[in-house]
């Protein structure tokens, strides 16, 4: 078996805590002979700034490009609140996404059966939820120029961020979303605000054109504000959602609460396949560095372990092993193990390490 190369970037806050549990799962995958991963670790975010004065070094970027996949924990925190913008922890993550051309961000929101009562929404609203949010990741207001704060002659400051999309950027993310919808429930909701934004007008027209190639998929157009409301009202009306960078950021945190916690949501950020069939990929939880609980050993590692599961599926063609990881997560939840973010009456409260250990224990049991 050829060894697959991973780069682990634990980052800041709870990032290293949840990444340690990913390493535990990786060690099991290697020991069990189900996969052969070799991995190295580097710095990203505030810790990289502290070490090198940059949120990611060129050397770490080279390793990211060379790896078969990158797994990232989280970046950011109050310690770096006053760092110049281009060097802030988040800039490291944005550079990874942009330089690796990771335009397609897949954010599945699945409500595990054991967690139907853990959500702040009613059981019947979330039970059986299996939603895929496809977020455009290298365009839009995150990267559009100009992007600046200017002090005018009057002394007043003016800030501008530019929402910018090219047709080809919308076309390629729409195709990813239609393909995913085809393998799922064959329904796609395209989310924008064409009623006020020119980028929304272009988005809607390009998605409508791409739909010509996917006539078997039912396409609906939903305004972003309405989509937010509908996601709280009845999230199960959606199967696959495709949306821009900023709306995708906000709507995925919103959808996370249907699963019980932001600590449950994994993600895959994918680029286009090259001539050799190689696709750049980065996997990370949807949540951030959670400064409020960092260092306490109570962060939920499921989003990050689930992100490793997505890597097995999307980068390494290890669908069976990915299914095993999902089943192990479902298994420990069914046994009543809960980190505090998903704690319910009568369940067993555990920390990050215990949850990781329990998932590996369940993997061993399921694989036996
Ligand atoms: P956050 O996602 O870090 O935390 C929001 C809330 O969710 C907090 O109450 C936190 O305790 C909780 N939470 C998040 N992950 C959890 C987990 N695994 N287990 C249990 N509870 C969890 O968002 P924030 O507080 O707005 O941002 C903190 C920092 O993280 C900021 O610097 C932000 O830029 C950064 N951030 C980074 C990423 C990333 O690295 N991909 C994503 C989002 C935010
Ligand atoms: C996310 C995060 C990032 C984003 C930040 C940390 C740059 O919120 O991955 O959801 O806004 O994309
Ligand atoms: Mn976010």
UniProtKB/TrEMBL annotation:
It is found in: Cytoplasm. GO terms for cellular component: cytosol. Residues 5-359 form the Isopropylmalate dehydrogenase-like domain. It comes from the Bacteria. It holds the Pfam family Iso_dh. InterPro entries: IsoCit/isopropylmalate_DH_CS, IsoPropMal-DH-like_dom, Isopropylmalate_DH. SUPFAM superfamilies: Isocitrate/Isopropylmalate dehydrogenase-like. Catalyzes the oxidation of 3-carboxy-2-hydroxy-4-methylpentanoate (3-isopropylmalate) to 3-carboxy-4-methyl-2-oxopentanoate. The product decarboxylates to 4-methyl-2 oxopentanoate. This is 3-isopropylmalate dehydrogenase. It comes from Rhodomicrobium vannielii (strain ATCC 17100 / DSM 162 / LMG 4299 / NCIMB 10020 / ATH 3.1.1).
């Amino acid at each position: 078996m050829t060894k697959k190369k991973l780069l682990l970037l634990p980052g800041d806050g709870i990032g290293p805590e949840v990444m340690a549990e990913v390493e535990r799962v990786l060690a099991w995958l290697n020991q069990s002979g189900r996969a052969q991963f070799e991995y190295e670790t580097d710095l990203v975010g505030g810790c990289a700034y502290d070490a090198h004065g940059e949120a990611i070094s060129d050397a770490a970027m080279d390793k990211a490009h060379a790896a078969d996949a990158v797994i990232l924990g989280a970046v950011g925190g109050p310690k770096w609140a006053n760092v110049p913008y281009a060097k802030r922890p988040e800039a490291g993550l944005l550079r990874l996404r942009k330089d690796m051309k990771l335009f397609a961000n897949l954010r599945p929101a699945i409500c595990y059966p054991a967690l139907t009562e853990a959500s702040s929404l009613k059981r019947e609203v979330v039970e059986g939820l299996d939603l895929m949010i496809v977020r455009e990741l290298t365009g839009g207001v995150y990267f559009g120029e100009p992007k600046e704060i200017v002090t005018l002659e009057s002394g007043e400051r003016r800030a501008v961020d530019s929402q910018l999309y090219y047709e080809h950027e919308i076309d390629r993310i729409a195709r990813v979303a239609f393909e995913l919808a085809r393998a799922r429930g064959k329904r796609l909701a395209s989310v924008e605000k064409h009623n006020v934004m020119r980028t929304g007008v272009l988005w809607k027209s390009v998605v409508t054109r791409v739909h010509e190639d996917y006539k078997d998929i039912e396409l609906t157009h939903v305004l972003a504000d309405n989509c937010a409301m509908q996601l709280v009202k009845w999230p199960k009306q959606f199967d696959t959602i495709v949306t821009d960078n900023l709306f995708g950021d906000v709507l995925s945190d919103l959808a996370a609460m249907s699963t019980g916690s932001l600590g449950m949501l994994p993600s895959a950020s994918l680029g286009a396949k090259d001539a050799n069939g190689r696709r750049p990929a980065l996997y990370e939880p949807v949540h951030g560095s959670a400064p409020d609980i960092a260092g306490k050993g109570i962060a939920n590692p499921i989003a990050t372990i689930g992100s490793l599961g997505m890597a097995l599926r999307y980068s390494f063609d290890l669908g069976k092993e990915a299914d095993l990881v999902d089943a192990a997560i479902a298994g420990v939840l069914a046994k009543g193990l809960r980190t505090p973010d998903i704690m319910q009456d009568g369940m067993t409260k555990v920390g990050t390490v215990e949850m990781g250990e329990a998932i590996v224990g369940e993997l061993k049991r399921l694989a036996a």
